[in-house]
Specification:
Aconitase, domain 3, 17 helices, 469 residues, alpha/beta, 2 domains, five-stranded parallel β-sheet, four-stranded parallel β-sheet
């Protein structure tokens, strides 16, 4: 770091170091700990086995999301493993005095959606969860990252975690985005340039005109996907957009405390002259609607482009051919016109109100294509209510879509919403690994606009051709 300025990342990290271990990790204090039903039960068993309690239960927040059904949530969960995990979360939260938003709670939803919308996520914080996409919260100028089950136990018992300090990377995107280009396209474009491992070992700050003009929902999408290029997490400096989003939310600071926090938050952005271990610059004008064609998020191209030849794709030829073989695609194939069987709109990447507004802007006055199954899943009950209040539900129903109940849904094959083997799904989620959406499922990652265009045409379609002038 240059003497002439400090980075946003350094300011937040250094202010949370409890102890430095020589030639080892830092002991980092954690401000917010989110837990869900999948990674927490074993951690609580560990506490019991060591006769430990939860040190600061008021700093821990529990919600059910991964294993939850997205229809008939008022009925008992049929899968016994899921039912046991959900029950364990409820019992442990009650035992240790932890806030718990289970199925049926009006605040329930995906952990990385409900945290920000309730004012729990704030700038300058350290935030962890036993979930890799905790990086979402970095959109607020927080250091947020996923942790493993043993680390969940560590944070529950000590409110601290041991972590080596990552290197720093800044990714700048300047200029103006074209019509129909969303934050999801921006981040998929960046990952396609850096590859799925290009930011390994780094914490990324996203900077530049494109991110400064982005909504908080868009910034959360970008930071959510930061780990898909190997980064430990991503963050964006807090500004007036951030403060306006937070102000007035239930658990946000109020009155004099708000003024005090706001003054501090305004000191967080990276200073002039600060240096990074690595830095990239991109132009927003170069980005078109993106879609993935392979089995990692780095295998993405502009929607009008053709699948690259193995020689120009990087990595091993055999791995590349295996990926295309799994997808049933070939080198130099056009993506436009590829058949689509399923469309999924939701997840902690694109399950917020802005995403459903975008989807509705294309499906309005159109109809779901024959042969396409569409799962439209809000990220929380609050988002579900917004969809109804804004008339988006009426548009969806008229177009032949059904709104499901909140949950992680078809992002991952941990609940009932699985894509059948061999079927193609245009998904607004974050990962297209083999089997991610179900054994043998073939995933094409894309924005809500690309998903909408596919839903009403039945094939991969450039959404710009369907947008109203």
């Amino acid at each position: 770091m240059s003497k002439s300025g400090a980075t946003l990342f350094d300011k937040v990290w250094d202010s949370h170091v409890v102890r430095k271990i020589a030639d080892g990790p830092d002991v980092l204090f954690i401000d917010r700990h989110f837990i869900h039903e999948v990674t927490s039960p074993v951690a609580f068993l560990g506490l019991e086995g060591r006769h430990l309690s939860v040190l600061f239960p008021e700093k821990t927040f529990a919600t059910a999301d991964h294993n939850t059904p997205t229809i008939n949530q008022h009925l008992p969960v049929q899968d016994p493993l899921s039912a046991n995990q959900l029950k364990a979360l409820e019992v442990n939260a009650a035992k240790y005095g932890i806030s718990h938003w289970g199925l049926g709670n009006p605040k329930n939803g995906i952990v990385h959606v409900v945290g920000p919308e309730n004012g729990i996520t704030l700038p300058g914080m350290t935030i962890v969860c036993g979930d890799s996409h905790t990086s979402t919260h970095g959109a607020f100028g927080a250091i947020a990252f996923g942790i493993g089950t043993s680390e969940v136990e560590m944070v529950l018992s000590s409110q601290c975690i041991m972590q080596p300090k990552p290197k720093k990377m800044r990714i700048n995107v300047d200029g103006k985005l074209g019509r129909g280009i969303t934050p999801k396209d921006v981040v998929l474009y960046i990952i396609s340039k850096l590859t799925a491992a290009g930011a390994t070992g780094y914490f990324v700050e996203f900077a530049g005109e494109v991110f400064e003009k982005m909504s908080m929902e868009g910034r959360m999408t970008v930071c959510n996907m930061s780990i898909e290029m190997g980064a430990r997490g991503g963050m964006i400096a807090p500004d007036e957009t951030t403060f306006s989003y937070i102000k007035g939310r239930e658990k946000a600071p109020k009155g004099a405390e708000w003024d005090k926090k706001l003054a501090y938050w305004k000191t967080l952005p990276t200073e002039q002259g600060a240096t990074f271990d690595k830095e990239y610059h991109f132009s927003g004008a170069d980005i078109e609607p993106m879609i993935t064609y392979g089995t990692n998020p780095g295998m993405g191209i502009g929607i009008t482009q053709h699948i690259p030849l193995a020689a120009g794709a990087g990595g091993s030829k055999s791995s590349y051919e295996k990926s295309l073989g799994y997808m049933g695609f070939h080198e130099n194939d056009a993506m436009l016109g590829k058949k689509v069987d399923y469309v999924f709109v939701g997840s902690c990447t694109n399950g917020r109100i802005e995403d459903f507004r975008a989807f509705a802007s294309i499906v309005k006055d159109r109809h779901v294509a024959p042969g396409v199954t569409a799962w439209i899943v809000p990220g929380s009950h609050i988002v579900e209510q917004q969809i109804k209040d804004e008339g988006i539900l009426d548009i969806l129903v008229a177009a032949g879509f059904q709104l499901r109940q909140p949950g992680c849904s078809a992002c991952l094959a941990m609940n009932d919403d699985k894509i059948p083997a061999g079927k193609y799904a245009v998904s607004t989620s974050n990962r297209n690994f083999e089997g991610r959406q179900g054994p043998g499922a073939r995933t094409l990652l894309a924005s809500p606009l690309v998903a909408a265009a596919a839903a009403v045409t039945g094939v991969v379609t450039d959404p710009r051709t369907l947008l109203a002038e």
